[in-house]
Design brief:
This protein has nine helices and eleven strands. It is of the alpha/beta class. It has a single domain, classed as 2-enoyl-CoA Hydratase, Chain A, domain 1 (Alpha-Beta Complex), CATH 3.90.226. The strands form three sheets. A six-stranded mixed β-sheet has the order 3-4-5-6-8-11, sandwiched between helices. Strand 4, helix 1 and strand 5 form a beta-alpha-beta unit. Helix 1 runs parallel beside helix 2, helix 2 packs parallel to helix 3 and helix 2 runs antiparallel to helix 8. The protein binds ligand LJEIAPTW. Ligand LJEIAPTW binds next to helix 8 and helix 9. Keywords: Acetylation, Fatty acid metabolism, Isomerase, Lipid metabolism, Mitochondrion, Transit peptide. It catalyses: (3Z)-dodecenoyl-CoA = (2E)-dodecenoyl-CoA; (3Z)-decenoyl-CoA = (2E)-decenoyl-CoA; (3Z)-octenoyl-CoA = (2E)-octenoyl-CoA; (2E)-tetradecenoyl-CoA = (3Z)-tetradecenoyl-CoA. This is Enoyl-CoA delta isomerase 1, mitochondrial. Pfam families: ECH_1 (PF00378).
Amino acid sequence: MSSRLLSFVGRTGRRRLMSTAIKLTTVEVNDKTGIATLTMCRPPVNGQNLELLLDIKSSINEIKNNNSRGLIITSASPKVFSAGLDILEMYKPDQQRLRAVWTELQNVWCDLYGISVPTAAAINGHAPAGGCLLATACEYRVMVPNCIIGLNETQLGIIAPKWLVSGYLNILPKRVAERALTQGRLFTTDEALQEGLIDEIANSKEEAVDKCVAFIGTFAKVNPVARALTKQQFRADNLRQFHKEREQDVDDFLSLVNRPEVQKGIGIYLEGLKKKANKQ
Ligand SMILES: CCCCCC/C=C\CC(=O)SCCNC(=O)CCNC(=O)[C@H](O)C(C)(C)COP(=O)(O)OP(=O)(O)OC[C@H]1O[C@@H](n2cnc3c(N)ncnc32)[C@H](O)[C@@H]1OP(=O)(O)O
């Protein structure tokens, strides 16, 4: 949860500042279907800063504990599912915070990847890098047209670690995954469907959510315990490997991000993003 200072005029006529907690995610459970929708709400692009990651984690845990029949993840932004890690967290970073950001990204991934209920991503906008990570941790993906999705880390001079790549490898043939990762390729919606990175295209967010609901509905007559154990069987090796390496992975991430040439690259990339945004 992040906090914001609200200014108001109190009874004495003096202006006061009040700190309020703002959640960057919402969870809504549909009474009829029992399916929970987790919506990311950090405008403009759901950049994954520490606070958003903490809220996603707490929402996944809420869904784990409220007997929901399934989880759909989506975004409140009209054009972007998530732009991935907030690049400002990686540029000239505070070391303790950077460590916490990466640890929470790991937590979000393993909670979403390992949750027993069926999961689906209603990708209602662009989903590069960490956005793609969230989508590929799910069991099903529906995306709106004319957007991009993929792991573009090499374009930023950083390397997606094995646990992050495992979502890709669950979905794409190894050959396609290797080429896409080494190129830092971002797939258009049509290309993503063609390669199997997404399962369906929908014309709107509402249609994407409906298609996710239909996917989760396919398990209605399947024993949920048998389903969950089967899912775990498929995902256990990746999770075991991740837990073995997670601490080393945090150290590797920090030392990579702190390299002067990587800092320089991130700075240039950020400038490019800002220039592009100002031109629009
Ligand atoms: C061991 C090491 C392992 C490393 C593994 C790393 C794993 C994950 C890393 C990441 O997730 S790195 C993040 C990579 N993300 C990107 O490269 C996406 C960059 N963004 C875009 O391409 C576009 O913004 C978009 C998502 C396609 C959306 O385009 P749109 O035209 O709708 O919006 P913009 O005008 O470009 O942006 C609006 C506004 O947001 C700022 N912004 C965009 N993305 C980010 C971001 N990831 N972090 C921080 N800020 C971002 C952008 O600069 C604009 O800001 P203003 O100029 O308006 O202030």
